[in-house]
Amino acid sequence: MASPIKTVVVLVQENRSFDHMLGWMKSMNPEIDGVTGKESNLLSTTNHHSQRLYHTNKAGFIQPDPGHSFEATYEQIFGVEWSESSTPGLTPTMDGFAQQAEKVQPGLSEVVMTGFDPDSLPVYKELVSEFAVCDRWFSSIPTLTQPNRLYVHSATSYGATINDTEMMIKGYPQKTIFESVEDGGHSFGIYYQLPPSTLFYRNLRKLKYIDNFHQFDLHFKRHCKEGKLPNYVVVEQRYFGIKGLPGNDDHPSHDVSDGQKFVKEVYEALRSSPQWNEILFVIVYDEHGGFYDHVPTPNVGIPNPDGLIGPSPYNFQFDRLGVRVPAILVSPWIERGTVLHKPTGPYPTSEFEHSSIPATVKKIFGLKSHLTKRDEWAGTFEGVARRTTPRTDCPVTLPDPMKMREFEPDENEKLSEFQQELVQLGAVLNGDHKRDMFPSKLVENMTVTEGAKYLEDAYKKFCEDCEQAKRDGKDESHIVCLEEEPTPESPKKSSRSFSQKLFSCLVCEH
């Protein structure tokens, strides 16, 4: 039977665990594998007399950024510090979150052991009640943002467990689901609020794909209204928070109410579209961000995607998953209050993880082949759309979230690690990677405002160069790379705020 789904929409938020965001939804639906308040961590895994911290539903605005590196995640999962002599095959105990957080900052242990009361996240509360939640979706690898985001569209990080500057310059070369969708005669589009992180993939920098990128605020709602959304849609949010335009990706220290507003905006645009009865909207988080989750991470029967081994000192085999993350599935073909647990295949050890997205897209659109061994193994979720007719009672609008942060974003805040990587991506796009300041000196003293402006300007230059290359008759597989050193320009004074200029800068109007 052909799938009723013709358009898959994917939104990947940042750095929150399942228990932190959705664990307390168990109070609404006992079928959800969430939390009750009995879950706990000792402040020291080796001292049974140390303070025991219980999981609470008191989460609110969170300023500090908990640890979520490879080493930090290892300690959170296994309760012991990682070392080069660490014993392989340990059993995940999920008891090291408080201990690891307290090392980062005194008192942070209490923060990572909190979750949101359902009423604090009214948009998610409504979506979980009305559609489907997956309570067994894991990040693809136990480490930070960028390697996990690579899995979402390519089922591999191409051996990356940390930020790889050389690969950033070259672009990650693996085949992506975008190309598979195109090869299958279907369409894709990327709608971005700030220059898109999907340009970490080398192939998406080709001239042939420049018209697949659309500025969200200019085009998304219009394409929804006109029924012109492509078959595979990726929505990229604001990864930087500035006055008037706060970050809405849920990465600390961004206010999750802004993330809720963005999800609401995307949902309501989709709901009002003539394509609504053909849409599956997927909301997931790239990784857990250092926040507690009680479900042990799978570490048996996980296939290495492509035979690559991570760099030293970790030499990761890509044979275990990361911490569980939130996943919500939305479609009029989904019954109210659906809960997805462990998948039934295709292998006995299969799990839902980020590679489940390309695996499911392959099934829905009847694509020819898998990308890697990982999406061949991953569980798929096309079966969640199991109704014989689409629902007519899906909410047209979602509740308005309440603001949690009582002050404007700090525009002088230093860049997060992922923001630094995005700025460095901008340097690749505009040619600054050839300068001595790349990569570390470029970002070491850069503020959030400066980073957002730099990235916006770099992407605008990249788009202009792509258009010029097309006019010059360059082959569609050509990737623009500036050969000459960019000439510094004197800053021009303007009475407009940066947020006004950023909002009005209509780059790449495709």
From TrEMBL:
Alphabetical keyword list: Hydrolase
Residue numbers spanned by region Disordered: 472-499
Any matching Pfam family: Phosphoesterase
GO biological process: phospholipid catabolic process
GO molecular function: phosphoric ester hydrolase activity
The keyword Hydrolase belongs to this UniProt entry's keyword annotation: yes
Similarity comment text for this entry: Belongs to the bacterial phospholipase C family.
Protein name as catalogued: Phosphoesterase
Highest classification ranks of the organism: Eukaryota, Viridiplantae, Streptophyta, Embryophyta, Tracheophyta
